[in-house]
Write a structure and sequence with these properties.
There is one protein chain. With 301 residues, this protein is an all-beta fold. Helices cover 2% and strands 46% of the residues. The chain has one helix at 197-202, and strands at residues 2-8, 22-23, 51-56, 65-70, 73-74, 78-81, 84-94, 97-101, 104-108, 115-124, 128-129, 133-137, 140-142, 149-150, 162-168, 175-179, 191-194, 209-219, 222-231, 237-245, 253-259, 264-270, 282-284, 294-299. The radius of gyration is 22 Å and the shape is elongated. Residues 51-65 have a biased composition (Polar residues). Residues 26-71 are annotated as: Disordered. Residues 37-50 have a biased composition (Low complexity).
Length: 301
């Protein structure tokens, strides 16, 4: 099946970043609690015992609380820690991500046949360092390389700041996203959010989008790119790329769109940074093939 759509780029200058790899939420500030709701003796391969759900108990004493130890947290649930609360939500597994560093963008995962990224939204009542999240596979916490960073929301909706955690493409019996403030400590896992059975299956299936055609065109009197992408993998996938003008080495625009399993999608994109060129003179200044994810536009000589 072939689909054709139009995408107009919007500014990404409003991304929620705190700097230094940290995320924060306006719901509250950092605080300390004498009653730590995590177990400091939990081993790193069993952080299921490291978080509690604290709920109000229907008691005559208004200050009374019932603390229930949770052996597992699911995606979307909240961990109550001594420093505040943190939750992991809206998990997807992607073949690539686009990291943002102020105005600079970097595309990660393109051309890597054995790497994916677990992307999750992070929400907390205290400042959370993106590098303190990791992936646990079959009971073992994997030291991520590169460290998790905040991503640009291109093919998904991020109502809270989203981070990308690199993972190898291979099967797992169990897996979880973990919050681990110190990688050097054996008991540093403070909370874990387990992947469900359907999500686990995606860990062994590498997304594979293939660029079929790229053409410079005119859309509504503006310079546009028409991209045709086929999904050659047995799962839904996302196509992500960077588009930049030839005159600037530090300016680019992130683009992306979803390509359902078994389908070919044609999308017309209108990047703002290349509007300095006329449609008749604009050309690709780099060769284009099915693996192209970096498009540089310049004037035809």
């Amino acid at each position: 099946m072939h689909r054709r759509e139009v995408l107009s780029l919007i500014s990404t200058a409003g991304l929620c970043t705190v700097g230094g790899g940290c995320l924060s939420n306006d719901n509250g500030d950092s605080h300390s609690d004498k009653n730590d709701s995590v177990s400091s003796s939990s081993p790193p391969d069993a952080p299921d015992n490291s978080a509690q759900i604290v709920s109000q108990s229907p008691s005559s004493n208004p200050d009374a609380t019932e603390q229930q130890r949770r052996h597992q947290l699911s995606i979307g649930e909240t961990a109550y820690l001594s420093t505040g609360t943190v939750s992991v939500n809206n998990l997807t597994i992607q073949g690539s991500v686009i990291y943002s560093n102020n105005v600079f963008y970097s595309l990660m995962g393109s051309g890597e046949p054995t790497q994916q990224f677990i992307v999750v939204g992070i929400e907390g009542t205290f400042e959370v360092d993106t590098t303190e999240f990791a992936f646990r596979r079959n009971g073992r916490v994997i030291d991520p390389n590169p460290r998790p960073q905040e991503i640009v929301s291109i093919t998904r909706n991020c109502s809270t700041p989203c981070i990308g955690i690199p993972v190898d493409t291979r099967a797992a019996d169990t897996a979880a996203v973990v919050y681990q403030p110190s990688y050097s400590s054996s008991d540093s896992v403070r909370a874990a959010w387990n992947l469900d059975e359907n999500t686990l299956k995606l860990l062994s299936i590498q997304p594979n989008c293939q660029l079929q055609k790229a053409e410079i065109t005119n859309f509504d009197n503006k310079l546009a790119l028409e991209l045709t992408v086929a999904n050659a993998s047995p799962r839904d996938a996302g196509f992500r790329a960077l588009i930049k003008p030839d005159y600037a080495s530090d300016v680019s625009e992130p683009v992306g769109f979803l390509v359902p399993e078994g389908q070919t999608v044609t999308r017309t994109i209108v990047p703002s940074e290349i509007q300095v060129y006329d449609t008749e003179e604009a050309t690709f200044t780099r060769p284009i093939n099915e693996d192209t994810r970096f498009f540089t536009i310049g004037r035809e000589n």
